[in-house]
Amino acid sequence: MKARWDIFCSVVDNYGDIGVTWRLARQLVVEHACAVRLWVDDLRAFERLCPQIDVRRDAQWQEGVDVRHWPAEWPGATAADVVIAAFACQLPPDYMEAMAARDRVPLWVNLDYLSAEEWVVGCHRLPSVTFKGVQKYFFFPGFRPGTGGLLREAGLLEQRQAFQRDAGAQQQFLHALGIFPAADARLISLFAYENAGLASWLELLSTDGRATHLLVPEGRILGDVQRWLGLERLAAGDIRQRGALTVQVIAFVPQAHYDRLLWCCDFNAVRGEDSFVRAQWAGRPLLWHIYRQDEDIHLDKLDAFLELYTAGLSPAARVALIGLWHAWNTDGDMAQPWKRLLEHWPEVNLHAETWCLEQGLQADLATALVQFYESWI
């Protein structure tokens, strides 16, 4: 019998949490023959990543996954063999009772937030609270050995490398999305939270000696782009040019298309967790906009990643990259940090690919979860 999995996702940050759980659910079905129900409380947000979703239906099949609407009033359901509470979401009380009522209690996992901090290794797979004999365990994605690894589908890196070697395939993909960059233009994607430092970066790009084509998916950063352009509104499909900078707003695309968009770009500015990981698999230089927390404790998490990520860089390139990331995540002026990064571009570009391949040597998150369940039973 296939192991039955229930994954619960409470959408908090629009797309990051559903992005992670949707990828995980599909991979468990396709690569590990698991029967997966994905419980989501906001199907409207899910629809942006999976346009086939019918937001009016409480139950539907999408790509082999049993997708369920998680309503305020719990509809009742038997508990699965493995129960994943994504990002510490609270399970319905009646479902917890159903877990405790099983003859064989399920494996209950809190799939935590991604972090590069050292303490994660010591907490990974440790027991947490219990409910009527059902034990919950911490499970941490991560970059270090001894963590749960990162979401990575089988063959992903090989597919990415083949795509990046095929200029015709890249052009065909971009043209299908209505993207026609100049032959010598630097292609950058920008998916970020609101950022007061954006204007200084855009101003520099507009006066640069090299053309830049900036792709901006619909999202929270769009307001800052509008203000810099002096416009009241920007929408998907709009293209504006100022000096050497072309700004193009693009609609949300399915996850597989977003992956390829990142593969096409020379530089990717990303936010949250899902796009952050996918930008690393692109093997291209990136800029992470981490979710801001009270008292700036998010900067500790940022620095923990930078310590790992920049370890193989020369001192000067390391300083340049860290300076850019810190400016971006403190709403600082981006002009000088961007100029300094460009001085080390060949090294930073090569390093992005090296880091990607090194991370690809670790077990992926879905496989690590399956192995945890197999060892637990």
TrEMBL record:
Task: Extract the Pfam families matched here.
Answer: EarP (PF10093)
Record InterPro entries: EarP
Task: Please list the reactions this protein catalyses.
Answer: dTDP-beta-L-rhamnose + L-arginyl-[protein] = N(omega)-(alpha-L-rhamnosyl)-L-arginyl-[protein] + dTDP + H(+)
Q: Tell me the keywords, alphabetical order.
A: Elongation factor, Glycosyltransferase, Protein biosynthesis, Transferase
Asked if the keyword Glycosyltransferase belongs to this entry, the reply reads: yes
Family label = Belongs to the glycosyltransferase 104 family.
Q: What is this protein called?
A: Protein-arginine rhamnosyltransferase
Q: Which species?
A: Pseudomonas azadiae
